[in-house]
Specification:
Number of strands: 8
Number of domains: 2
Domain 3-hydroxyacyl-CoA dehydrogenase C-terminal: 187-282
Strand content: 5-15%
Mean pLDDT: 97
Low-confidence stretches: none
Structural class: alpha/beta
Bound molecules: acetoacetyl-coenzyme A
Largest sheet: 8 strands, mixed
EC number: 1.1.1.157
Family: Belongs to the 3-hydroxyacyl-CoA dehydrogenase family.
InterPro entries: 3-OHacyl-CoA_DH, 3-OHacyl-CoA_DH_CS, 3-OHacyl-CoA_DH_NAD-bd, 3HC_DH_C, 6-PGluconate_DH-like_C_sf, 6PGD_dom2, NAD(P)-bd_dom_sf
Radius of gyration: 19 Å
Strand order of the largest sheet: 3-2-1-4-5-6-7-8
Number of helices: 11
Keywords: Oxidoreductase
Helix content: 40-55%
Length: 283
């Protein structure tokens, strides 16, 4: 059965980007969150981000209007039970994700595929708590979703081939490229990216460089579009720390220990761009 409708859980930076690309690709989108303000903010962000594409001449104003019309919002999670594909993009905490799947499960249609946009948590473990581990997958988008080409597809131990094929086809319809990753902590992208960001924080912590010199070095010396500290602020320092903890716990290797400075920033509530302060000051 072809996927036509998509439920997105969480209207934060990943959730609104996911809703944006699905709506532009012609899918009906139902975006849910626990707060009306978050949903309203997401819709105005999507409007602004699609407008960037209109102003570059990549899509027409009509495309924009029909994409926006395809996005509906709800505060009532069970409404997502009517969709063909559910993408959970809530906070990167396993207990939160598990509670969401538990609440949603009784309302799902039998054919609905469940996915999580988790950047690091075990897909097999998340799937095992649901009634459909064979129809459960990791579906990991990169930030900013409308710009980044890659989507990681992660099969849990029980995921069936039909589910994998259906999601692979969806990635093609979005005009993106799928990479398959095995279900080990942080998959491919974050297994490599996060230790680099963590090492940049150690470089700062040990006084080898300052924020600007570290970022400048990696931008001009390694041709990265953003320096690692700027990128950490962009991703969210809480998310970076959560992923380092998953690597550290899951692989039991001290090379993944989170830098104490990263922990301190998160404890201070300095979470990067979203909180107004991280390695840089955005206020
Ligand atoms: N929606 C739509 N378009 C957007 C956008 C958005 N949210 N954000 C940026 N763009 C578009 C801009 O309109 C612009 O389009 P053109 O090329 O047509 O001009 C283009 O993207 C570049 O944007 P800007 O000119 O504003 O800024 P930039 O050149 O500095 O690029 C960037 C911004 C694309 C974010 C770039 O800095 C970059 O690639 N940074 C690295 C991002 C990255 O590494 N992401 C992965 C993070 S890891 C992850 O997501 C996994 C995880 O689980 C943590």
């Amino acid at each position: 059965m072809a996927i036509q409708s998509v439920g997105v859980i969480g209207a934060g930076q990943m959730g609104n980007g996911i809703a944006h690309v699905f709506a532009l690709a012609g899918f009906d989108v139902l975006l849910s969150d626990v707060s009306r303000e978050a949903l309203d903010k997401a819709i105005s962000l999507i409007d602004r981000n699609i407008e960037r594409q209109v102003s570059k001449g990549r899509i027409s104003s009509e495309d924009k209007q029909s994409a926006l019309a395809r996005i509906k919002t709800t505060l009532n999670l069970p409404d997502l039970g009517q969709t063909d594909l559910v993408i959970e993009a809530a906070t990167e905490r396993e207990s939160v994700k598990q509670a969401i799947f538990e609440d949603l499960q009784p309302h799902l249609q039998p054919h609905t595929i469940l996915t999580s946009n988790t950047s690091s948590i075990s897909i097999t473990r998340l799937a095992s708590r649901t009634d459909r581990p064979e129809k459960f997958m990791g579906f990991h988008f990169m930030n900013p979703v409308p710009v980044m080409q890659l989507v990681e597809l992660i099969r849990g131990i029980a995921t069936d081939e039909a589910t994998y094929k259906a999601l692979h086809e969806v990635v093609g319809k979005l005009g993106k490229t799928a990479a398959s990753a095995e279900d080990f902590p942080a998959f491919i992208v974050n297994r490599i990216l996060m230790p680099m960001i963590n090492e940049a924080v150690y470089t700062l912590y040990e006084g080898v460089g300052n924020v600007r010199s570290i970022d400048e070095s990696m931008k001009l010396g390694a041709n990265h579009p953003m320096g690692p500290l700027e990128l950490a602020d962009f991703i969210g320092l809480d998310t970076c720390l959560a992923i380092m903890n998953v690597l550290h716990d899951g692989l039991a290797d001290t090379k993944y220990r989170p830098c104490p400075l990263l922990t301190k920033y998160v404890e201070a509530g300095w979470l990067g761009r979203k909180s107004g302060r991280g390695f840089y000051d955005y206020r």
